[in-house]
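Structure first, sequence second, as always.
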């Protein structure tokens, strides 16, 4: 099976314009993401961008890019266009966040392995929550799964709800998982989900993956113990100064 890694990278951002070109210890953020993806099992890596400044940077360090429509509503749609633009045919796609310069290749490999299984249509990652602030933060997306590791529901609220347990004791008495926002899809499934209209649950929670569940598409989850650091605002760059980069 041939698996393509696609890194959506928009230039415009309300909180951090030009984020993919932000410098992190001598390298741009997009370069660091691409170089991490190159270390994985992926057959190829391409940056899907809407801006020639990002495209020129990718070319400059030897990467591959595809220019995509600037008006896509999500990274999933940008991935679908990139997939259909390339001449080479791929069986599956891994959608890699362009603002995680520390992404571990082992996380990508876990998704490559999972999406390579015949029955897997969509795959993603979870990490056990061990911090109370994360558990109750609406910025942390939670997920519950069935006994086979398929997602049952995603929410910005803590799930499951711990009835008759004091809030401060939830972590001691339950198991909670945080969704790690990296996806893998079979190529034909990516094309299908990109054509689906927004769903009621998706709009209620502002979580795109709920649209897929509402349309009967199972999402298989793999557990990772690795912590990701995403850069959402210029102030987040301070986080990376505490981490060792090669």
């Amino acid at each position: 099976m041939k698996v393509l890694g696609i890194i959506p990278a928009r230039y415009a951002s309300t909180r951090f314009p030009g984020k993919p070109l932000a410098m992190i210890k001598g390298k741009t953020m997009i370069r660091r993401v691409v170089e991490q993806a190159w270390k994985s099992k992926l057959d190829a890596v391409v940056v899907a961008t809407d801006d020639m400044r990002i495209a020129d940077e990718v070319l400059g360090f030897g990467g591959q890019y595809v220019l995509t429509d600037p008006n896509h509503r999500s990274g999933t749609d940008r991935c679908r266009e990139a997939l259909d633009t390339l001449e080479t045919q791929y069986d599956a796609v891994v959608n890699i966040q362009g603002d995680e310069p520390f992404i571990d290749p082992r996380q990508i490999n876990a998704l490559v392995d999972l999406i390579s299984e015949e029955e897997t249509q969509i795959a993603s990652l979870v990490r056990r929550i061990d911090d109370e602030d994360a558990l109750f933060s609406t910025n942390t997306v939670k997920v519950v799964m069935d006994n086979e590791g398929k997602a049952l529901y995603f929410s910005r609220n803590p799930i499951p709800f711990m009835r008759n347990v004091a809030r401060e004791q939830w972590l001691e008495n339950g198991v909670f998982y945080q969704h790690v926002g990296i996806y893998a899809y079979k190529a034909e499934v990516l094309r299908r989900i990109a054509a689906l209209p927004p769903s009621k649950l998706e709009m209620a929670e502002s979580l795109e993956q709920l649209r897929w569940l509402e349309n009967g598409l199972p999402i298989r989850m793999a557990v990772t113990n690795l912590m990701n650091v995403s850069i959402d605002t210029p102030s987040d760059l301070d986080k990376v100064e505490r981490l060792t980069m090669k």
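Margin note: The longest strand covers residues 177-186.
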